[in-house]
């Protein structure tokens, strides 16, 4: 079958015919791939900037793809919750089997680091015509979401981050006098797909959302911000428009993007670190540390997601389909055929929010 | 009556006779001061390095002292839980009355910053022969602890920090396979009174404790470390002895003290920022940020304590009196008469862990 | 204007013209009523079986109605989040202003019992052509939900109950090996609107849902159960089909309905008590108490909802509109004009799930 | 060696010489027994009223004893935290190895019920001269507590119950306006060792404690109540003295003891069920259910304890040794030699709070 294939640590990517026979074991499901999304990690691997990618045992190449949506083609013995024709999204990370978090299905909190991740480290991904997977790690997708569920995986990571945030912020009273978050300002650094998901999700939770980038919004970004009631701020020009923040979410990974905003953080506020990037640095002063202490500020790095977060992501997709369908439609900026995968993987198309490969 | 008095923002301190008449209102208690402890904040005010100190309304000076222990002399009408002869420790911070946390007695999480703090900002402190206070903000001390309860206030801040830490770390499974913390390494930066309290408390909770300073331990520090089963590490000489950490607590406030240790932080680990200091900075790289993200690391600044933490501190003092009475005795390195207060306030006595002023 | 009016503690209800002038204060909003739902509490008041109903100060009658949906007609000075034409749902309970939970907007946990509730105790309800209310207690409804948002209030109580359940069940690991609730059985006693909302919500959260009643399902109930993948069990005939339960939700209030099911409860399971009814009793044995102890079982009564739960309810309505629009359509079994209100209030129409009064 | 031995399900108990050779495996420790406590479960087994007791695999008798304190005699290869001469208390329950709670060391929340418990089900207990156990399940005891640590096990169950209670009650604001529990009334039903531990622990946490029994206190009970500032109430004579309760803890297991008190429960209050007993019942009315619902009342059964709770119990023992040493001394009402074990096991000595067998 056709697959999008890389040699980890080498620049390049190709669509080629791979000869993989996957027998259908007990409790397993054969899935025909419908769509796979492309994200920065994929491009990092393709451009050999991400060095932690490695092939699955027994392979000398890696099939790319961790944002997948497929349709069940065949179910193995003992499969209970899925049947032919169901839409499914596969979970990306599979646990180490040793640490306590992996033992309870929270491999997003794996403590040993010895997990594998489909399409990234040690496990072939979903950019191929079909794959076999355990029922346990396939998330059933409501039929009504088949056009948007390719967004489930990237969104799941955002859902996990916010779920964790809301838990840790119960350390004190963080809700407003009416029990909601409507008095809270959230500043989102970055307006890519992840930044957009954070903006949508925090809007849905009642936060006043400010989207910050170093440039003016492109037309799509401007549309989305206006549509969801958020404010887009070009931090190069109008930094003083950034309000005092109860929450800052950094999706950029650049210390220079969020450290200058820390003085805006209010008492009891939180900074969620989500972005990762290389080759930059910034200065942190003891005055800043003092203000983190004096203001009870919390900072948390968040990565990956568990299966429950995939289900949470599907819930948000339904909510947004009902309220912001036009926004969801704008997030998927293009759907390209498999043959064009190398082109869009090597170079980000201009104006992209999310590019998706169409398999059928 | 005699009091230890400063003019905020001016260098200097004196013991002088102040003429304060405090009538005993409903629900109030008159307290004769027994001991008051001295900490870095007091010296910061005396040396005019702390600029946020200011006098109580109607005063042109500030009575110093936020670490107090007294004995009830007289109780006002309606007082229910205290009687003459009871030992008490007063809470330091009094809430803004406006924000939700202050409304529920969690003024340590005051959101407006409009609190007052006895002996620090806007409220006369406890370095005086007697004071009147509300029953509500006096913590009853068991008689058995009268020799150590002057340590309650500084310890309460440590109790709050750890209480909060244990709550936020319930975001995943942080306990070991036997439900305890015995597999967890805690690295404490600093070996002053606060560092010592963190070391004692985390030892009591089962953590493997490593005390880090830039120099060799003095004899008292060496004794305490050995006695509680902790390891003292001179980070200037033997940095490689610092283990991988599940928890780092910084009591120094110096970015250069804890940022170099961040690469030692394990998955799901936490960094508690407790120290505050001026005039220093260090560099933070995007690689470090990436590792905070990829490892789900949490950082939390913690300040002050609520009344429940004062009660928690008294519990720990009882535990340690039973198990480490010699350590508690070594923590109070000297008890000086009031007349010597200016001397020990202006300059930290050599070998000091905690200096205490004796009032009666 | 027309209003549906009762004299508390007297049988009867009428539509009459009331002369209420409500000036529009600062921060207030005038709302034109669109729909009001009818529930058991309304009928309890109308039939004088509910004895805790009483009029608003200065009135000798009570305007009924706590399940409202309206449209903003006019906004007062200082209103920020609402504008003319917005759809809104009013919060029912208003806090005592004294207890800590009311102070932080959690009047659903009022400790004094001195709250008022629109249409029930001490506050005129929403069964009238228009009303004035504080912006703070009006929940903005997305336009997309205008046809279903009359269900927000009853659903909000279900959202609160489940939100609380999920919090308290973090006392141990209650999620399955894949982090979801897909291995958990939820047994819902009752198939009225509340039972249906619990079934929908728990299905959405991944539970295997069993709906239990003492009779066969009517066609609508059968349709809904089948549609959402739940199993309807007639406990009179097929009690042995009720599975071992991780969760039982009683919406009936009859001890004889849920006490016989307690032996089905698994280790660590929970029983949510939601229903209230009069005049019945059942026996509880020490063997049952022993099994509650030995199995770490938790029981929690849940009432009312805070504003955040109204927002949560709107989110679920969007999810279900996307996935189960036909089910939502079947839940509202009839929309009657105001003139017919007394008739449907005095006697429950046969086959009713939710009857709604249409105001415009 | 000598051991206290029963044949499960047969009345009777004897001290006899058993021939058990336990080799010292890797990570294991040989422990010489110092003291073992006696509780109702032991007597239930001895009198064949407890029917779930069964011998360890390969044995036709069961060595009794789950409340143990010993001293390390020999440590096996790889043991890190214990050495000869250390005092230790063994954990009672050992997990099923299958369910998620057992996998993370929370066998007190075992979901399968397939655990074993030393001295009770499937595992020989500690009423013998020595035993071998895994380091992992031995709790190190500070030397200062060697005279009281035989109380660790029964106390650990109380610590777990309260730990869980405090967690679940974070569902709303349950603390008082000063952040403590000093405005809260706790009613403890029962004045045996467990009731006494609950009373001590809740006093230490700041609750106003009321101890309820159906009879007057004996002199020891009267002394303890007075000493810790609690109120003893004879519910047969002075039921109206029982206050409105924020917390009821039942240690009796009799529905007729706690159901009549439920109308005393305040909004947001909790009932902890801890006692187990046979052959009794009481009536529960729908009015009572309604009040549980309307008042958001929570009921939780609690059993067993994890290793962390044993450590917590040791902390409380240190606190109480410092503050209430006389009370601890009165709790151990007698220390008898092994030869007298059958006598005190078959029949509870009059005036007993806790009887202890002395092994060395």
How would you describe what is shown here?
Chain A has helices at residues 40-46, 100-103, 152-168, 193-204, 219-228, 255-258, 286-294, 307-331, 341-346; strands spanning 2-6, 14-17, 28-37, 62-63, 67-75, 87-90, 93-94, 116-118, 122-123, 130-134, 138-141, 185-189, 208-213, 231-234, 245-250, 265-273, 281-285, 298-301, 332-337, 354-358. Chain A is an alpha/beta fold and 360 residues long. Chain A has two domains: 2-141 and 331-358, Quinone Oxidoreductase, Chain A, domain 1 (Alpha-Beta Complex), CATH 3.90.180.10; 157-301, NAD(P)-binding Rossmann-like Domain (Rossmann fold, 3-Layer(aba) Sandwich). In chain A, the strands form four sheets. In chain A, strands 3, 5, 6, 10, 11, 19 and 20 form a seven-stranded mixed sheet that branches. A six-stranded parallel sheet of chain A has the order 14-13-12-15-16-18, covered by helices on one side. Chain A has a three-stranded antiparallel sheet with strand order 2-1-4, with no helix packed on it. In chain A, strand 15 (245-250), helix 6 (255-258) and strand 16 form a beta-alpha-beta unit. In chain A, helix 3 (152-168) packs across helix 8. The longest helix of chain A is centred in the C-terminal third of the chain and has 25 residues, at 307-331. The radius of gyration of chain A is 21 Å and the shape is globular. The mean pLDDT of chain A is 97.
């Amino acid at each position: 079958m056709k697959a999008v294939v890389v040699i980890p640590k080498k620049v390049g990517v190709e669509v080629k015919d791979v000869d993989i026979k996957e027998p259908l074991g007990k409790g397993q499901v054969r899935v025909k791939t419908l769509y796979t999304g492309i994200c920065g990690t994929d491009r990092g691997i393709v451009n050999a900037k991400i060095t932690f990618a490695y092939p699955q045992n027994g392979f000398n190449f890696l099939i790319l793809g961790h944002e997948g949506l497929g349709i069940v083609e065949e179910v193995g013995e003992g499969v209970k919750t899925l049947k032919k024709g169901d839409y499914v999204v596969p979970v990306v990370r599979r646990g180490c089997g040793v640490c306590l978090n992996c033992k309870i299905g929270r491999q997003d909190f794996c403590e040993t680091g010895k997990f594998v991740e489909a399409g990234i480290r040690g496990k072939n991904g979903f950019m191929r015509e079909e794959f076999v997977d355990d029922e346990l790690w396939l998330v059933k997708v409501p039929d009504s979401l088949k056009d948007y569920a390719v967004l489930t995986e990237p969104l799941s990571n955002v859902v996990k981050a916010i779920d964790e945030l809301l838990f840790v912020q119960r350390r004190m009273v963080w809700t407003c006098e009416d029990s909601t978050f409507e008095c809270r300002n959230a500043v989102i650094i970055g307006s890519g797909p992840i930044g957009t998901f954070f903006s949508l999700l925090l809007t849905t939770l009642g936060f006043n959302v400010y989207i910050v980038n170093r440039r003016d919004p492109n037309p799509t970004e401007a549309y989305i911000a206006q549509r969801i009631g958020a404010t887009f701020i070009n931090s190069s020009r109008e930094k003083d428009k950034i309000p005092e923040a109860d929450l800052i979410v950094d999706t950029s990974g650049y210390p220079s993007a969020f450290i200058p905003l820390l003085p805006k953080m209010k008492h009891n506020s939180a900074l969620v670190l989500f972005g990762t990037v290389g080759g930059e640095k910034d200065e942190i002063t003891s005055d800043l540390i003092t203000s983190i202490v004096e203001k009870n500020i919390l900072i948390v790095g968040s990565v990956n997601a568990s299966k429950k977060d995939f289900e949470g992501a599907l819930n948000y997709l339904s909510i947004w389909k009902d309220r912001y369908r036009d926004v969801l439609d704008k997030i998927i900026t293009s759907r390209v055929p498999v043959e064009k995968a190398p082109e869009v993987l090597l170079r980000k198309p201009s104006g992209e929010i999310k590019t998706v490969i169409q398999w059928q």
